Amino acid sequence: MKNPFKKGSDDTRVDAKENPQNKPESQSRADYQHYIGRKMLFMAIMIILLGLIGAFIVTIGPLDISVPDVYKILLSSLFPGNFATEGLPSQVVWNIRLPRIVAGIMAGFGLGICGCVMQAVLKNPLASPFTLGISAGANFGVAVAAVVGVGVIGGPYLLVGNAFLFAMLCALFIIALASFKGATSETLILAGIAINYLFGSLSDLFRYFATDEQLRVMVSWGMGDLSAFSWNNFLLLLVVFVICTPLLYMKANDLNIMAIGDENAKSLGIEANRVRMFSMLVASLLIATIVCFTGTIAFIGLVAPHMARMVIGSDHKYLFPASGLVGALVLISADATGMNILRPTMIPTGIMTSLLGVPFFMYLILKRKRKEFW
Known about the structure:
With 374 residues, this protein is mainly alpha-helical. The protein is 75% helix and 0% strand. The protein has helices at 9-18, 22-57, 67-78, 87-122, 134-147, 158-181, 185-209, 212-223, 231-249, 252-258, 262-267, 272-294, 300-312, 316-340, 349-368. It comes from Methanohalophilus mahii (strain ATCC 35705 / DSM 5219 / SLP).
C-alpha cells in the first residue's frame, strides 16, 4: 500500500518542474540579454545615424552643388565612365568635403575613446584627452615651428611633426613622473595641471614675440580645424588607429575591475599601476596623432563618454565603442555647422565644439547633483 505522506519519484519530478526557484535563473538570463541588447541597439543606432548624417553633410557646403551631382561624383569612382562629372565640383567633393567627414569620424572616435579611458584611469568625470597637458605640448611645438622655424621634420610637415613630438614628450614626461612617484590618479592629474601651465606660458611667450604672420599660424592651429587633413594623412592616421584602438579595448575588463579600487583590483590579479601606465601611453599616442593633424578640438573627449554613459552605463566593454561613436557623431555635426552657418565664412571646428559642448556640460553639472559615476 502506498504511503500517502511519502513522495514517490513521479511526485518528485512534478515538484521539481513546479519549483519556483527555477524562475529567477531564467529571468536573470533574460534580463542580461535585454541588458546587452539595449547596448548593442544603441551602438547600431549610432552607426546608422553616423552614416546618414555623413551622407547628408557631403551634399552641403559653401559651394552650391546639387545632391544628384554630389552622388554622381561619388559613384563615378565606383563605376568609371558611367557618370559625367565636372572638374571643380569633383575636386570640392573628393578633396575638401569627403576628407573632412573622414577626419571628423576618425578624430571624434579617437577622442571619445581616449576621453573614456582617461576618465576611467583617473577616476575623474572631468578628465579628458587634454587634462594631462598633451594639447599644451602640441601648441608649444607649433609655436616653436612657427616662430623659430625649427622642427624634426621640414617642409609641409613642420608644424605637424613638432606638434606630435611635443605632445608625446609631455605625455612621456607625465608618465615617467607618475612612475617615479607612484602612478596614482592624483599624481597624474597634478602633473598634467603643471604641464598645462608650463607649456601654456611658454606658448604665450612665443606669441608675444611673434610677427603677425606667425601669430596667425599659431592662433589658427590652436583653434582646431579639420581642413588641414587630406588623403595624404589618411594612411598614417589609420595605422595608428588600427594599432591603438584594440590595445585600449583589451584593457576594458581591467578598467572595470579597477573601478572598485586599486587594492581590490590587486587582490583579483590586476596590477592597477601597470594598467594605468599602459592605457595612458597608448591613449597619448593616439591623441598626439589626432592633435597634430586637427589642432586643439575641445570638449569631444569630455562630453562624449558622459553622453554614452547616460544611456548604456559604465561597462567599458560597451562604453569604449559607444563613446567613440558619439564623439564622431558630435564632431562631424559641429564641423558641418561651422562650415555652413555663416557661408561662405567657415568657423573653425574647435570653436564650434566648444560652443556646442559648454551647454551640454552645464546640463551635466546641473543634472548630476550628488550622483557619483564611479
